[in-house]
Amino acid sequence: MDGMTQDISTKDQRPYHHGDLHRTIVEAALDVLSESQSTEFSLRELARRAGVSHNAPYKHFTDKRELLGAVSAVGFELLAKRMAEATRELDSPRERLAAMASAYVCGGVNNPALYRLMFGGYLAGQDDGRPAIERTAAYNMKALVVEAISDGALGRPIADTEANTRTIDGAILVFWSQMHGLTLLLADRLVGPGDKTKELTANVLQGMLDGLVNSIPAVPEGVWVGPPLAG
Amino acid sequence: MDGMTQDISTKDQRPYHHGDLHRTIVEAALDVLSESQSTEFSLRELARRAGVSHNAPYKHFTDKRELLGAVSAVGFELLAKRMAEATRELDSPRERLAAMASAYVCGGVNNPALYRLMFGGYLAGQDDGRPAIERTAAYNMKALVVEAISDGALGRPIADTEANTRTIDGAILVFWSQMHGLTLLLADRLVGPGDKTKELTANVLQGMLDGLVNSIPAVPEGVWVGPPLAG
DNA sequence: CGAGATATGTTGACATTGTCCACTCTAGCA
DNA sequence: TGCTAGAGTGGACAATGTCAACATATCTCG
Predict the structure, then answer these.
(1) Residue A194 has what pLDDT?
(2) Which tops the pLDDT comparison, A222 or B122?
(3) Nearest CA to B134 among B184, B76, B190, B87?
(4) Between B37, B180, B227, which is nearest A184 by CB?
(5) Of the segments A219-228, B93-102, B222-231, which one has the largest average pLDDT value?
(6) CA(A228)–C1'(C25) in Å?
(7) Residues facing residue A191 across a β-bridge
(8) C1'-nearest nucleotide to the CA of B15
(9) What digits encode the pLDDT tens for the residues B1-20?
(10) CATH fold of B75-231, please?
(11) Cα(A8)–Cα(A229) distance, integer angstroms
């Protein structure tokens, strides 16, 4: 009797229904992506890791694309969270902005494949665009930067008003593209070594902020900075 | 008789040996990459396009990786050529630098998949590194920028000497990462619209150059800017 | 000039993958 | 209690990267 029940309980430990396969698959994908630093893993591999049949994931994602979209969204949330945390206990707006930049670059350098998945147009299919969750996360990140700027990170406060949109977007364009480029050059080892990341980021950033204090490039009308609002 | 010979001549028009399959395959890859904007095409598709058996490409490339490396190298050469051409008939070093930047960004935006292949660490395998031809092309590009800087693009001439290495590398780091980031944000439509590319590039660039005229961030010792010399 | 040797191409095979379809199980609601 | 819809399973299929064995053209050297 004991034997039988134990047999059942050990063999059949995994119930027919997994419980939260969606989350499990996304986490497995994040793991594999981080380990292999490549998006060329197979859905079947994830299924294997999750201990389910090769087709189970298709009940939660219509596509490999969709799965990668979910992974990307998690990446945005992680990055935004780190940026937000990095500014805790910092008062000076400029220091807050610098801390965010540092967190941003380090996040990207520490997991290039994830960063590339997030920004590298894997889902740049001209048809549908990116998942809403991605756009939301990206806007949250932008909001953090806008806040620091409006608080005076560029020398003087710049209120986050309609009238200042072009100015703020100009500043963010410079800031973002500089950090984005630095992140990717470091991640791809076109600039290095990696253990100088923080130092390089700080140096480049200070020069850039000084430049922005002096003058902020104009952004032409009709330009957007951040994911487009309309699909 | 006529029929037979014609049959033979038309059917057997393609000799057993292709002639220059290597080049043909690379060009086909460039075509497919440019059209599909994805590196996920198949070697077999290229073979089909070249009118050759599915395994013929393997006589010229050990790997899909190696093929993509060759494509990337061509991309570097194309980009360097465009940058060089853009500076023709321009005298002012600053104008030359601006023209190069514009050519660089436009090149990337016009073919994002190729640009991403070149810089996006598809061949960042921690083992072997990038093909020599790629590194050479990247250094040629860097040389163009160095020349403009030493000619005085940043307000005063900065001789390309050992003593100035850190200064020049600092300037190039700022310049390159800014343009790299801008290119990718535009390519991935995180900034747009695309038809404002030149305007945006010019504005961002002028601000950046003004900043560099005032002060060039120091680059810590041991930092490299450009592909590492040692594998 | 003629015969290996050497590239270069071809055919066939295999494991793996994304994805479709038909089926089964199980939980929850009527 | 029994049905239904969601969740998981197994099999099938075409496509792909890559290996191995074979075929053919070109080169080389006697």
Answers:
(1) 92
(2) A222
(3) B76
(4) B180
(5) B93-102
(6) 44
(7) B225
(8) D25
(9) 333 333 333 334 566 677 78
(10) Tetracycline Repressor; domain 2 (1.10.357)
(11) 54
- pLDDT band for position B122 (cuts 50, 70, 90): confident
Which residues in chain A touch residue B199, judged by CB atoms under 8 angstroms apart? 220
Q: Are B29 and B57 in contact (CB under 8 A)?
A: no
User: Is A216 in Cβ contact with B214 (below 8 Å)?
Assistant: no
- The amino acid at residue B67 is L
Residue B137 corresponds to which tokens in the numbers above? 């092309």
B173 contacts A204 by C-beta, under 8 angstroms: yes
Distance CA B204, CA B135 (A): 27
Return residue ranges of chain A for CATH 1.10.357.10: 71-231
Taking alpha carbons only, the member of A172, A133, A177 closest to residue A149 is A172
Least Cα separation, residue A193 to chain B (angstroms): 6
pLDDT tens for each residue of A20-57: 899 999 999 999 999 999 999 999 999 999 999 999 99
Separation between the CA of A18 and the C1’ of C8 (whole angstroms): 53
Search chain A and give the residue with CA nearest B121.
A188
pLDDT of the residue at B14: 60
Structure tokens at B145: 């920028």
Q: Where in chain B is the domain with CATH 1.10.357?
A: 75-231
Q: How confident is the model at residue A138 (pLDDT cuts 50, 70, 90)?
A: confident
Q: Does pLDDT of B81 surpass 70? A: yes
Distance of C1' in D9 from CA in A42, Å: 19
Fold of A71-231: Tetracycline Repressor; domain 2 (1.10.357)
